[in-house]
Design goal:
92 residues, alpha+beta, two-stranded parallel ribbon, two-stranded antiparallel sheet, 3 helices, 15% strand
């Protein structure tokens, strides 16, 4: 891989899913978004990598609004607000 400029094959044959997800996340963060939407895309990273990334993303210094869709309760507990959805209905 050549950093952020690494070409990503649409069929995902050149790079592993883990590397592809890291590159996509890095590109999103590098754009300094106002809103960052993450949908369980870190689930296949090891625990330490996942914690490091979530701690960085959720730090207040960025000023981002971060929306995380996840089944991971550890991740949910790091968030300021948490909503539970069941059968398409928000329960909170």
């Amino acid at each position: 891989p050549t950093g952020l400029e690494t070409p990503i094959d649409p069929e995902g044959k050149r790079l592993s899913k883990t590397i592809t997800r890291k590159i996509v996340l890095a590109r999103a963060i590098a754009d300094n978004p106002k809103i960052l939407l993450l949908e369980d895309n870190l689930s296949n990273l090891n625990h330490d990598e996942r914690q490091l990334i979530y701690n960085n993303i959720l730090s207040k210094k960025h000023g981002w609004t971060v929306i995380i869709v996840s089944n991971d309760e550890i991740v949910a507990n790091k968030c300021d607000d948490r909503y539970v959805m069941e059968n398409g209905v928000i329960l909170n």
